[in-house]
Amino acid sequence: MIKKLFHRLKRPLAAVFVGALTTFAFAPYQFWPVAILSPALLLILIHNQSNRTALWTGYAWGLGQFATGISWVHISIDNFGGMPKIASLFLMSLLIGYLAIYSGLFTWLLNRYFRQSNRIRFLIAAPALWLCCDWLRGWVMTGFPWLWLGYSQIDSPLSNFAPIGGVEFITLLLLISAGSISYAVLQKQWLHILIPVTILFTGFGLQSAHWVQPNPEKVTKLALIQGNVDQAKKWLPKQRWPTIMKYTDLTRENWDADIIIWPEAAIPAFEVEIPSYLSNLDSAGKMNESAIVTGVLNQDEKGQFFNSILSLGKTKYGDYSLDMSKRYHKHHLLPFGEFVPFEDILRPLAPIFNLPMSSFSRGDFIQPNIVANGRYMAPALCYEIIFNEQVRQNVTKDTDFILTLSNDAWFGNSIGPLQHMEIARMRALELGKPLIRSTNNGVTAVTDYRGKVVAQIPQFETRVLRAQITSTSGQTPFHKLGTWPLYLWVLLSLVVGWRFKASIQGQDIT
Fold it and tell me: Which keywords appear in this protein's UniProt record, sorted alphabetically (predicted)?
């Protein structure tokens, strides 16, 4: 009995290990070939298995990937959720179990509808179904497109495909490569190894492609202030003005910068509570020919709360006023952190569902760029930077930079903030725009339009990052078209694959 049970479990157990390896493809480890090897091994593990075994093997792979890849989420639940450790571990397990559903769905669909071990299964159906499941994970319940395999390639030759089709296109190429390798191993068709080799060499060749051009006439001097404020003390009333003055003093030392940038919710107060201070800061910025951009919390006349970005000083908005239409308001809110689904049911159950600042309203999907000292910046607050379509649609012909303000202090000294920076770099590469990332305690950095970090300061230190970045002109194919050509290809692949599958089965019956 035990032997039989072990025999049934050995593939899922192996899949847990293989899925866990996937984390090494991402920051801070960045062993990018693992992102090809891991799905290739998964395809081998489900080969010639029942639909049920394929489902549990894929689910186990997802458990391994997310248990290791997003373990950092537990830090925020444990430190700020106000729950016993056993309860926080239970919630973390629920999240991991939910995210693993999508890899289980992938393996079940593949074995259910494309069972035959042929090129259609490995080179067409598997990549298409993987992208469909990734898309679902990035959409259901506002989405969580973290750890899409394509992000792991930001420093690999495959990164050069990002301006063409975005991170999803890179993921597609990874799955085609993985399918080719697994097909070659299972069928002893070794020439198929040439497919990933060709894809990699094409990526090398694309390094010489110039989709956008730097504009040397538009060079901007930046000062990014990393306050390193203790998250546990930040919102205590007695800490309000010490925190505000900390940012003010560091700003005063950097008035020679064109734009001074504070992180997300740098001001531990609602804007309506400190209009006199902000008016004075606005006047000081104008007097010094500089602009200040900061994250701030807002409340409108209807009592709705917003996580916002405010521009002060030398801007196009005139003198400071409490005009909500001149702010950027975060659209993609973090579930449970900034809003609670089914809140009438969940809030009474436990403190984790009643965190401070968990009742925000969302801004529009597309909003005007933030303008500071003549520069146009497409904003994304914290979690929003992982939604490439939202960022893409907010980048206009006037946009100089992508601006993302964040506060990853919730996640301590973990791999989470490093993964977050990796994702942000992909946005710069996809859209051909330099990226500015200002955070409370790191990673605070600036990238060029290819997503390469040109300036960065250490985490967990109070520092000011001084940098110069150059605006770009032109448009990448991804910025122009988005992902619809890719998903049209996915749809056609599934239709063609299904038709050929039916044709092959008919020949087998004959």
Answer: Acyltransferase, Cell membrane, Membrane, Transferase, Transmembrane, Transmembrane helix
